[in-house]
Amino acid sequence: MHVVSFTRSTPDTAAKVWVNEEGKVSWGDVATVVNPWDEYSLEEAIVQAKNCAGEATVIAIGPEIHDDALKHSIAMGMTKALRIDEPGADTRDSLVWSALAAGAIKKLGNVELVIFGKESVDVATDQHSYQLARRLGWTMLSYVSNIIALDADTGTIRVEQMLEQGKRVLSARLPAVISVMKGINEPRYPNFLGIRKAAKARIPVWSAADMGIEAPVPATAVLAYHNPPVRAVATEIITGNDSAEKAAILAERLFEEKVL
Amino acid sequence: MSVYVWIETYSGRANPSSWEALAAAATLAENLESDLTTLVFGENARAIATEAGRFGATNAYICDDEVVNEYRLEAYAQLMTDLVKRHQPAFVLAVASSRSRELLASSAVDTESGLIAEATDLRLDRGRIIATRPAYAGKVSMEMTSNSATTYITVRGRAFQAPSKDANATVSLAEIQTALTMNDLSVEAEAFTDSAENVNLTDAAIIVSGGRGMANNPKAVPSDQDAVDPNVWKAKDGFENTLRPLASVLGAALGASRAAVDAGYISYEHQVGQTGKVVNPDLYIACGISGAIQHQAGMRGSKIIVAINKDAEAPIFKLARYGIVGNLYDVVPALTAALRRKLGS
Ligand SMILES: Cc1cc2nc3c(=O)[nH]c(=O)nc-3n(C[C@H](O)[C@H](O)[C@H](O)COP(=O)(O)OP(=O)(O)OC[C@H]3O[C@@H](n4cnc5c(N)ncnc54)[C@H](O)[C@@H]3O)c2cc1C
Ligand SMILES: Nc1ncnc2c1ncn2[C@@H]1O[C@H](COP(=O)(O)O)[C@@H](O)[C@H]1O
């Protein structure tokens, strides 16, 4: 079985992020990390591929900055990495993104399962997995909190899905695209051997033409990024003789704020 | 020209947050002088569509049969895509939820349309949509537009105010049919277990949250609980017997920091933050939470933040409108008692 996982680099969640004079998003020289939600999808791809004696490929779409996430994925144990880069294509548009992603899956040919993380921690759109599934005409299983069974021989998958209202058990035929939640596993840390392998890995880059598809046309466009207005909060530290007095004053304030 | 809104339903009832999407869509429809059409699929579709009429919808497409009786992505997407292909509405909106995200994204691919996720503000500039949405955990905001005939938009919960209800308003209903049968569906749902409790943090108007500080419960661990980690026992007891009573008095949902979730004090459904849920309540009460940047990412949008922490230097106080420096195990019960007296329950 060939399992694919998509990932990319995102700024460290602790980084200060702002819009610079050129109107671009900047996080200074803070290093990027693999999208934190994808630690779970990568771990799951590694484990599932291994259980089926298959291979696990990781793909990033976009410029060279994403090689960091790909190398991290190899260091964790993904078998090989691939980057899709179509110069000039605005991959922030999900139609463009999904067309390129579907092109890559079709060119790889023998993929039966694609595993995504729940969302990108930076833009948090939570849309790419669904659009890839739809383009491929594959079954989509979202918000998976447990893969109960994956059977390469019968081509079936059985998962637990976690929604706002509770949990469901779903079963489907492969090929499928799934997105997984935090908590599905304990992501591993790359070990020394993995890090060495990643350092040596050469990452092929495919363009739309390499995949035999047209460069897709975006429907959406980002007009501008803005720094949000600074929210000035005047903090009132409530003082009093004891907790009861402080609590009574706080209760009074909350009534005045009309939030109760 | 139309503006569509998908009304999410569950067990024959509308997700009340869907009315917020209806309000957002109503502004667009008014601007375009178009109708405001809801798509209501599933059990009780007719009654829900009628209710949507009271909230301002002028039209509705309804479908209620075996295949769409409960939410199924393939069946719902087929209905939505078919309507969009036939009528080319200017917009398809829904409130952002697990289901609407996958449904709108799928249908947008079917119709090669633009998709904008989690908008917090929408306006039309000479007919062109300008959507504002937060990015980078709210550290940056972005403005997006779309040039396709139809644009799909999910709106963030609690970003738009639900419309007021007019009990006499009427709506024009049209019934539609599914093209799929049960045999066409590739996913089989075997069982559904309701959450033991409905966490629903994203719709909550008030949230009471606990962090790692919950482990400093002064209560002694009972002798028959020797086998469990004392911190876990103490924190769990604190969530149940100290925070939950405050939440009950306020009708609030229970939240938590990742440190509390990862330590096993409470389940992941409760996690607020960058790798949990993003919430925007009117009131957020953080108890024993330091206010790490990743936690802030999930709750910074709260209208009033209250921090209860024994460390006066904790970063959470920088966000808080009101703070109490003290032991949460003294302050929270006192606050619960004070509020109970005032709210008279
Ligand atoms: C990629 C990534 C993603 C993350 N995502 C999230 C996320 O989604 N959500 C999240 O919350 N965190 C997230 N984190 C973790 C975050 O960095 C912090 O570690 C976490 O928020 C700390 O939780 P805490 O405030 O409960 O614990 P601490 O930082 O340990 O704070 C505990 C606080 O409790 C106070 N306290 C202790 N005892 C008492 C008492 N008796 N009374 C009153 N106060 C008391 C202490 O003074 C302290 O301020 C993420 C981290 C990373 C790297
Ligand atoms: N440019 C990209 N390349 C590879 N994977 C991506 C890219 N953008 C998003 N993803 C993945 O898609 C999933 C859903 O993210 P999103 O829809 O962006 O919130 C996550 O697993 C992301 O890592």
Provide a short characterization of the protein structure:
By secondary structure, chain A is α/β, with parallel strands linked by helices. Chain A has 6 helices and 15 strands. In chain A, helix 2 crosses helix 5 and helix 3 crosses helix 4.
Rounded to the nearest angstrom, the radius of gyration of chain A is: 22 Å
Biggest sheet of chain A: strands side by side, in what order?
11-10-9-12-8-1-6-7-13
| Spatial strand sequence of the major β-sheet of chain B | 7-11-6-1-4-5-12
> How many DSSP-defined strands of chain A?
15
**Oligomer designation:** heterodimer
How much helicity do the residues of chain A have? 25-40%
The greatest inter-chain interface is formed by: A-B, 79 and 93 residues
SSE sequence of chain A, one letter per element: EEEEEHEHEHEHEEEEHEEEH
Radius of gyration of chain B, CA atoms, in whole angstroms = 23 Å
Bound molecules: flavin-adenine dinucleotide, adenosine monophosphate
Shape of chain A: globular
Q: Tell me the structural class of chain A.
A: alpha/beta
End-to-end distance of chain B, in Å? 50 Å
Characterize the main sheet of chain B: 7 strands, parallel
Q: How does this structure look, described?
A:
- The complex is a heterodimer of chains A (260) and B (345).
- Chain A is an alpha/beta fold.
- Helix content of chain A is 27%, strand content 30%.
- The mean pLDDT of chain A is 96.
- Chain B has 345 residues and is α/β, with parallel strands linked by helices.
- Chain B is elongated.
- In chain B, helix 5 links the parallel strand 14 and strand 15 (253-256).
- The chains are: A alpha/beta (260), B alpha/beta (345).
- At the A-B interface, strand 3, helix 3, helix 4, strand 9 and strand 10 of A face helix 4, strand 7, strand 9, strand 10 and strand 13 of B.
- The structure holds flavin-adenine dinucleotide (FAD) and adenosine monophosphate (AMP).
